[in-house]
User: Fold this.
Amino acid sequence: MSIYTAAIAAALREAFDVPALAAAWLGLHPDGTGDVSRPVLAQFLGRAREAITSALRRVLGRLWPEGWVLGQRSADAILAGVDDVDWGAWTPGDWEAAQEIAGPGLRQLLAEAGIVIKSIAESRLEELSDVLERSLSSNVTEREFNGPKPLTLSVQSLADELRSVLDNPARAELVAQAEIARAQSAAAMRQYAESGVREGEWSTAEDAKVCPRCDEAEAAGPVPLGALFPGVEVPMPPGHPRCRCALIPVVVRRAA
Assistant:
């Protein structure tokens, strides 16, 4: 996961020229005051949206195949009742090999890529918007040896704030963890369904860190697997950021 945490952070950090955006924005309001029209703000955010979306698509397009193979092979091991997972010719970090191994089931996950990427991008854009709007009420005074200069906004300080939204390792880790877990669960459910399994159970880590929501999902018992059954909705891990749960095939649990 650390590979993709770093890749997501780097991709967003380098998505566009942050100092240039800060300079262009402050060029509209050099004294740091004034009202900004929604169309002007939308224009700035529109450029950022395109860059962020493109950056995320490149990285997540590599992450999803690897998460899929993790779930696929782990499910095969569970169904076979073995502890050791056969990874074959794939090693973590080799997304091209994972894509070859994944098979047609991965296409369903990739079909949802636009929705997922849009959601992640929009959360960053909201934060960028807040920073840009706050900059209009900034009160920065620069001092020189001969006294204070008039109130100004610093391009560098605004760029630093914008960059802190994009280059955030903690948030990059949340995205990487959630998307790997989502791909793993989707692949596992497909493997179970293709093997004839019709029900699965939500399995928690069984410790004090398990949240009430996941405890409730586990207590609910078996649910029908819907990966290959149109119209059947199935709760699927991850249930929330940093969720450690998994969906276990009922036939294996009962046979143990």
